[in-house]
Predict the structure.
Amino acid sequence: MPSTATLLTVAAMIIGGYGVLVAGMYLAQRSLLYLPSGQPMTPREAGVPEMRGVLLTTADGLSLTAWHRPPVGDGVTLVYFHGNGGHIGYRGHRVRPFLDAGFGVLLVSYRGYGGNPGRPTEDGLYADGRAALAFLEARGFPPGRLVLFGESLGGGVAVRLAWEQARAGSPVAAVVLEAPLSSVADVGAYHYPILPVRLLLKDRFDIVPLVGEIAAPLFVAHGEADLVVPIRFGRKVFDAASEPKEAFWVDGGGHENLPAFGLHARVLRFLDRHLAAGAPRTGV
């Protein structure tokens, strides 16, 4: 039988190793959360040649490249906040159906992504989103003529901005969330159950306390087979939201393949039903 001293030594080694693991995860957490990758692309290379590059100026002085096309006629603009990986060049096919339907589209690229300056943080992405809305408002597209679309982590940005606009008395026209996180804490605890994730996080993107106060129609889509952000977190967001709201729970859908299950058609029908008469989808 091992001696008490041996047992204490082993316990100290286990505790020490765990402490090193926790410290390492704390220091590396943003490199795990934000995954910009790939070479920057042009709109033409991404399959959206009608879009043009524009600059968004943030409150902290960054100039970020984004892609924009105005709506057809007097229509509505969809502001697309992508997820934590890649860059806007990988989202051309995701906004194509909205461009074809006559929507204006602003593809927002975050700091540190796609060749943009800066490093991504939660507050930084919110600032980037605010710069996107300011860009549009300066060109005659107020919040009431905007649909905010959040893909995965981008849902945290979309909901935060929609909540801010509602508090300011200028709610957006609608919000669409594809495979949203209820919070980084929830998803992190799912992926790393042995770590005290909720105590370590710097960036949280906690949607649930805000989504019930966005004062806009909400559409939530999530795949039943999503292993990155399990569907229970999307349901948590939906349950916390106020009416009007609509869910699209996709049997067999994963984290990134919901367009293959008819996502865009469902979103377009939702927007046709809910966009106010004063904010028509298109000008035709």
Notes: The two ends are 84 Å apart (CA to CA).
